[in-house]
Amino acid sequence: MTVATDEIYEKYLQKAITEINALGDEIAQAGAGARVPVLGSGHPLGDVFLLKYAPQPSELQEGVAFYGRAGNALLKSLQRLRVDPMAVYGTNCLKFADSDEEESRPFLLRELHIVQPKLVVVMGEPALAFLNEARFPLARTLAATEGELQTFTPTIQALYTPDIDESLDEQAAKTRFWNAFKLLGDWWSSTPPY
């Protein structure tokens, strides 16, 4: 008896949704009601995994990663590059305003295991250092080389860009971010769908 590919994908999707929701509950419990968590958002099996270091005030207010200016800028950039925003998942390394790296690192590792992206877009040197120190299985150390595809694991590529939050207020910084980020469009157009 053969099972249709769509049915298999639906099973993986349901599993990912359940695991992401459970992770969100665990992060909220880690806040002990006194700290507002900032949870990842997007497709739980997204091909593209956006990663930045710390939540901004708008993200802390809403409890959602990439809420606000950075999210709006990225959505416009994805549309410009013809990348399906429904195939993207975004999160922060730090899950609370006052969290430390040791507390947050296991959460990020779980997110990567659940989402199983094909590409991780690492935004800024603090996020890069955090990811390199996370010790994800079979991971290679990534370099701060802007706009160049790197091998993160045998199944995941990485793209390093400047920090999106630091790139929004000055034209030269926006241009630098865009020049690095636009490689995502080429990668997307050459990546076969499931």
Explain briefly what this protein structure is.
This protein has 194 residues and is α/β, with parallel strands linked by helices.
Structure overview:
There is one protein chain. By secondary structure, the protein is an alpha/beta fold. The protein has a single domain, classed as Uracil-DNA Glycosylase, subunit E (3-Layer(aba) Sandwich), CATH 3.40.470. It is 44% helix and 13% strand. The chain has seven helices and six strands. It has a six-stranded mixed β-sheet, with helices on both faces. Helix 1 packs antiparallel against helix 4. The longest helix has 26 residues. The protein is globular, with a radius of gyration of 16 Å. The model has no long low-confidence stretch (mean pLDDT 93).
Order of helical and strand elements: HEEHHEHEHEEHH
Number of DSSP E strands: 6
**CATH superfamily name?**
Uracil-DNA glycosylase-like domain
Radius of gyration: 16 Å
Beta percentage is 5-15%
Protein structure class? alpha/beta
Q: Report the mean per-residue pLDDT as an integer.
A: 93
CATH architect. name: 3-Layer(aba) Sandwich
Key terms:
single chain; 194 residues; alpha/beta; Uracil-DNA Glycosylase, subunit E; 6-stranded mixed beta sheet; 6 strands; globular
Give the topology.
Blueprint (H helix, E strand, L loop, with lengths): L4 H26 L10 E2 L5 E5 L4 H6 L6 H12 L7 E5 L8 H15 L3 E5 L1 H8 L16 E3 L5 E5 L9 H11 L1 H8 L4
Parallel strand pairs: 2-3, 2-4, 4-6
Antiparallel strand pairs: 1-3, 5-6
Helix pairs in contact: 1-4
